[in-house]
């Protein structure tokens, strides 16, 4: 009656997923956990079985479904193992480090004939994005023609290298733009500010819509994501991300968080509840392996456009029927 | 490991509590339900035992904790039954219809020697109120001196009679003002617009703070609750209740809901999760039976002030040590 | 063709009026100025005649109309002198220090049989208040039933004594509330926070409407005036007083000024342009001597209510036909 | 002592300039007017001399300075006539219809050796843009690296042809972006939505900054201009263009105007006051003939980029010392 979930990886995101499963998710029990740091796993066990080997966790009878939150480089292998075991998994983005690896997973799932993988593009569950999509789908703004995205981090992590602004951050906009517009990008143009930050990336979709995204890794003032969808009859956009406003010291306003966790706390919670329900019902939801593949393949091609001034044609390959 | 919950009353609020327990609450299972309309109960059972008699549900071995969401007039009797059975209960407000009844429940709980009852003053779990209280408690606005409350309903229900603006609506402000300020009201003054709606109610607290509340039962434009807490160094207030903004037809803005359910959906969810955790841990949280009593006794005295122009002194009685 | 204006008093407000006349007002020429500090007057002359005696300025052939911005205690005498000379005057509020003096001016103007005096209640020209009144008069919010006013100063001036929160600050709300609602106040109730600041003043009008005003002399965080007018079908309120918003240091928002001058700069400018046009056309506009008298007489009675908890009945006397 | 101004062209903008000079501008007198429709001119004369021939007005002894608000095609010839007469002029944008004509005017003014022409790029006087520039110049947002512009018209006028979105609308962003950033654009890339509307134009400046502009001629919902300037330490943007907010019919928000006149009413007024003062003082201000030329030459080259997908290099020519 309650879903037995195993959690792999107990870093920042893994620990948050663990907390969400235990404190804010209906219908799930964490029966197994696994982390490279066995001591950390032990501290967080609370009665769950502790595995040293993630593949053993995936294979275990105690586990009906898996959350993959281990380092990015391990995602592909673990996702394939879940498919091999026939177990549903919620896999943190990115699905895989390369297009080739992503494609292999898509092919494995297609061969299996049913969707078991959901990729953790949590913005699809963010109440603001959901309301924006609802407004567009309900015809409230007319046909969508242009999407403005702003994605600002206070500071890039130390381990960030150049293309990661695209492969790590901009992938969120690739996914959410496809989801909001119901369309795939077909070209990309990149403009770069001095020092390579911020980037201004313009995409055209197969419906002719325009998607403009500012990716600013070192915006200093805080973590801030914004989007405005422009239609032929009106627009819909995120409100400022705040539930209270203060007056103090000649100033009116609200604060920003330093990173994405508080901003998308609701999205992560709703995603987890929805995933558990979707596993229980057998109806796949959220971002699919194909969506994860597309985010990766588009990002890879945008990286190639970083060098030149030209408009780059994007090629995605044919979407398998499984993801129709 | 999971809390066995029985739900009494499956009207608007009861059905929402049932949904929250099943879809958005960790660590709880609905094992029993009860409603005056047995057919409705049957439709919502999903495997839970259906009771015709709420007292039988409360007494059942299948039930560890109870949610009371039946008509207001039944709250007192069912709360007393839960105390008699030694079972924790989340009881929708009001605790009881009269001061005398409320006091009887408080006395029963005091005799028992431990807090089993939580009253459903869900605003204490609303993210905006929580942030306001945090700001005040953290000293961000200096000492709070004045609280502005606005409580607007689109239209009073048909069954509303005069004093219900106070006993049904204003009770929320009595409770949330006490909680925000950490103080009890000691006087009340009522001003009335033509036709008796809106009311403007001014209270003074035992710390000398002022609490101003507009209660407008027929504000027409929508359901809207607002609050601003004024301190000696600044203020904190609710932001507009919206996550998206639209442009359309020469207009910019957002919509209001028609009633309180969408506005306080998060508050109800968080309250339920928190209640289940608090029952599991044995540490009472939320509004206590004493808080429920105070809301009722203050409301009763404010009703008496409706007739005259005078400032009325409020008398609450002594707070038992159990609620210190 | 251009109006010859004399300006009396060159302090903060007088100097601003002088600047407005010279730099932002059509159809006026400053031909004479006067200040207790003759040196200051000399520095600001720019070709205007400098008078040591304000009565001589008023009587001078060079002066067709007068701006009175000298210390409050002098207003009454100078206003009477303008009436005696038959010259229009824009007199800074308050019209006079006492009800008796105010009444004497009203009687003098009534005896003269035409309106020559305009009192500088500049909020009547503030674009936000004007839009609020327009919305109400156009029926956009239904019948107005309640007005919420907030009047916050960063810090009371040194020379402020207790009742000046009423006689110096709250007079603005007395005037603007009468103007917005087209009604006179008939009762007042005062609630006082510890230390006498802030005040919460509730008035009822002769139409049964309620007016709630917070007057906070030491709000610390900045100068901030807010108002919301509540009608039976909707509300209209001031937007936050800012034309730009900034993001910086984990913060989003805008700044407040330290005093009223920047907040009401547009109002002062529009008032001055309107006054010059109204003098040229002979059609009196803005707040009349009667309005100035009412602000003073109501303030005086509210001060008397400061001591007790009771609702005080306000008495204004009969409005002369001249001001119908 | 007061500037004698002649106004040429009494259409929408010309009539507004006339009104501003008469009702809201200090130090100016309208002594002469001229319009192709002599009857309209007669109706608006109010004592000013009515000229049938604009060149006669420019040459007249009654006229010290000229406002040119006649049809666009006449601007260049009239501007040259003002230079020939040595009379200062405020010329509505565009300065001229082509780059060649614009350059001829610049050369004539350079030959004269002093700046007599101001082009009516009124946004430089809009309080929001002024505050944005002040914030940037004061270092409040760090070095500016990116400017987001949004320029939406409710509906394109009937007489609009394709490139006019650039030559008539986008010219405003060319000018204001140069002014805000203190930099000239060096490349432009254009993306086009289906049907050619909206356009998304990306420019790079000679400082490496990026300028992104949405130009939407048929945004339907209203006239709306927005800008956000992004710096290395923060951002500054326009607040929503409203002084009041309303609640009504389940909706909160404010209205947009149908065209630019109400949005930029303050800008036009301030521009006019500033122009009159600058003529009186002999110190040129506002957008110069060179600025007018640059807007035209950049627009012409952006039009050429409309056809292709390529990034276009912009060439402006050398700035004469007169405009250093
Ligand atoms: Mg993620
Ligand atoms: Mg409730
Ligand atoms: Mg004043
Ligand atoms: Mg213009």
Automatic annotation (TrEMBL), chains A, B, C, D:
SUPFAM superfamilies: Glyceraldehyde-3-phosphate dehydrogenase-like, C-terminal domain, NAD(P)-binding Rossmann-fold domains. GO terms for molecular function: nucleotide binding. Residues 137-313 form the Gfo/Idh/MocA-like oxidoreductase C-terminal domain. It comes from the Bacteria. Pfam families: GFO_IDH_MocA (PF01408), GFO_IDH_MocA_C (PF02894). Signal peptide: none annotated. Residues 4-117 form the Gfo/Idh/MocA-like oxidoreductase N-terminal domain. This is Gfo/Idh/MocA family oxidoreductase.
């Amino acid at each position: 009656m309650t879903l037995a979930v195993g959690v792999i990886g107990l870093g920042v995101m893994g620990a948050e997923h663990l907390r969400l499963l235990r404190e804010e998710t209906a219908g799930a029990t964490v029966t197994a956990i696994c982390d490279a740091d066995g001591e950390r796993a032990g501290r967080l066990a609370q009665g769950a079985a502790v595995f040293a080997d993630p593949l053993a966790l995936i294979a275990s009878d105690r586990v009906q479904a898996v959350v993959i939150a281990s380092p990015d480089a391990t995602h592909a292998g673990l996702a394939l193992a879940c498919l091999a075991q026939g177990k549903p998994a919620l896999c943190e983005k990115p699905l895989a480090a390369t297009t080739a690896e992503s494609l292999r997973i898509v092919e494995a799932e297609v061969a299996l004939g049913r969707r078991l993988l959901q990729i953790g593009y949590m913005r699809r569950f963010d109440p603001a994005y959901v309301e924006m999509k609802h407004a567009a789908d309900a015809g409230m703004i007319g046909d969508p023609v242009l999407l403005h995205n702003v994605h600002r981090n206070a500071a890039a992590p130390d381990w960030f290298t150049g293309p990661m602004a695209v492969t790590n951050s901009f992938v969120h906009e690739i996914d959410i733009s496809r989801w909001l517009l119901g369309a795939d990008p077909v070209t990309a143009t990149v403009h770069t500010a001095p020092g390579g930050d911020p980037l201004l990336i313009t995409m055209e979709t197969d419906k002719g819509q325009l998607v403009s995204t500012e990716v600013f890794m070192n915006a200093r003032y805080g973590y801030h994501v914004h989007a405005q969808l422009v239609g032929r009859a009106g627009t819909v956009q995120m409100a400022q991300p705040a539930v209270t406003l203060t007056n103090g010291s000649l100033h009116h306003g609200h604060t920003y968080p330093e990173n994405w966790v508080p901003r998308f706390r609701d999205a992560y919670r709703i995603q987890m509840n929805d995933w558990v329900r979707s596993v229980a019902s057998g109806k796949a939801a959220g971002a699919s392996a194909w969506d994860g593949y597309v985010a990766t393949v588009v990002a890879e091609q945008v990286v190639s456009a970083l060098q030149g001034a030209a408009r780059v044609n994007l090629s995605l390959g044919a979407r398998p029927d499984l993801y129709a």
